[in-house]
């Protein structure tokens, strides 16, 4: 297949730049502690300086993989599938989510919301970033808002983003891992003063699992 043909199929979402896929325990947010199969799609230009998966940023180094192959692999492991990145909404997610749904799977996404929403999702975890703000549609359809707290200014940013989601969206503040010892006490105080928020921790890192 020519490079042009491959790129055409990537643009259609029939092929995706797959970085990795693995079965593990969801460590964050509303579904923490539950088994899930993760599909990590390469490609991201949001550029968070504290990102712990920077190897996902360059889509070109991750092989274009058939969406049907990804779906078949996922169906072997779990009823719950989490599509993450990178930033998965850089790509058309409709073909992949259609294939996953055809296999009777629950399909979740973790996204910055910086790109237009595509795909059919049972759960949308929106983790907005200051550099590229989320699209209104993603904010309005999010089931879960997870704001990463790296410094004190992130509390104001969190409130700005909370004003954009629906009243049924669950609100989480999560300390960035490298500054957790400094930020956790501030988050605890903030949540106690503003109980509409909950605390999310990266429990998979405490458990030393992927």
TrEMBL record:
GO molecular function, one term: S-adenosyl-L-methionine binding
Keyword presence, Metal-binding: yes
UniProt keyword terms in alphabetical order: 4Fe-4S, Iron, Iron-sulfur, Lyase, Magnesium, Metal-binding, Queuosine biosynthesis, S-adenosyl-L-methionine
GO terms of biological process kind: tRNA queuosine(34) biosynthetic process
Cofactor(s) recorded in Swiss-Prot or TrEMBL: [4Fe-4S] cluster; S-adenosyl-L-methionine; Mg(2+)
Pfam families associated with the record: Radical_SAM
Cofactor comment: Binds 1 [4Fe-4S] cluster. The cluster is coordinated with 3 cysteines and an exchangeable S-adenosyl-L-methionine. Binds 1 S-adenosyl-L-methionine per subunit.
Residues where substrate binds: 25-27, 40, 84, 210
Residues holding [4Fe-4S] cluster: 44, 48, 51
EC number(s) stated in the UniProt entry for this protein: 4.3.99.3
Transmembrane segments: none
Keyword Cytoplasm: no
Biological or metabolic pathway of the protein: Purine metabolism; 7-cyano-7-deazaguanine biosynthesis
Catalytic activity: 6-carboxy-5,6,7,8-tetrahydropterin + H(+) = 7-carboxy-7-carbaguanine + NH4(+)
Matches recorded under InterPro entries: 7-CO-7-deazaguanine_synth-like, Aldolase_TIM, rSAM, rSAM_sf
Binding site for S-adenosyl-L-methionine: 50-52, 86, 127-129
Domain Radical SAM core: 31-210
Role: Catalyzes the complex heterocyclic radical-mediated conversion of 6-carboxy-5,6,7,8-tetrahydropterin (CPH4) to 7-carboxy-7-deazaguanine (CDG), a step common to the biosynthetic pathways of all 7-deazapurine-containing compounds.
HAMAP family reported in the protein's UniProt record: QueE
Family classification: Belongs to the radical SAM superfamily. 7-carboxy-7-deazaguanine synthase family.
Assembly and interaction partners: Homodimer.
Name of the protein in question: 7-carboxy-7-deazaguanine synthase
Protein species of origin: Dokdonia pacifica
Chain's gene name: queE
